[in-house]
């Protein structure tokens, strides 16, 4: 089992940037594909970005392509989400998820709030 802790959320104006971090502990981090999901009030949790175990391949939901970048550092047991050109519709709780493959996380962190003001 892997334990995940997100950080880096906050309040930012539209057009601004934030970098989310997710620190992992427990079972070997490099054994997991990593994902970022988000959940806005009243909505279900949705996929944002994913990265394979090696970090070679990434996947993004269409609405964040060209604005968000997922990366990982297996030596530091961490995954990141660089978010640029933020929009009010990016406002949500962002969750880090670990799993056997991208898009199928089985372990979650507690989430970090991102609020984008217009």
Estimated share of beta-strand residues: over 45%
| Multimeric state | single chain
Helical percent range?
under 10%
Helix-strand topology string: EEEEEEEEEEE
Uncertain regions: pLDDT < 50 for 5+ in a row? none
The counted number of beta strands is 11
**Rg (C-alpha, Å):** 13 Å
- Which structural class best describes the helix and strand composition? mainly beta
- Sheet with the most strands, sense and barrel status: 7 strands, mixed
Mean pLDDT: 97
Shape: globular
N-C termini distance: 40 Å
Number of helix segments? 0
In short:
This protein is an all-beta fold and 118 residues long. It is 0% helix and 55% strand.
Characteristics of this structure?
11 strands; 4-stranded antiparallel beta sheet; 0% helix; globular; 7-stranded mixed beta sheet; mainly beta; 118 residues
Question: How would you describe the overall organization of this protein?
Answer:
By secondary structure, this protein is an all-beta fold. Helix content is 0%, strand content 55%. The strands form two sheets. Strands 2, 4, 5, 6, 9, 10 and 11 form a seven-stranded mixed β-sheet that branches. It has a four-stranded antiparallel β-sheet with strand order 1-3-8-7, with no helix packed on it. The relative contact order is 0.32.
Topology summary:
Layout: E1 2-7, E2 10-13, E3 18-26, E4 33-39, E5 46-51, E6 58-60, E7 68-73, E8 78-83, E9 92-99, E10 105-108, E11 112-117
Parallel strand pairs: 2-11
Antiparallel strand pairs: 1-3, 3-8, 4-5, 4-9, 5-6, 7-8, 9-10, 9-11
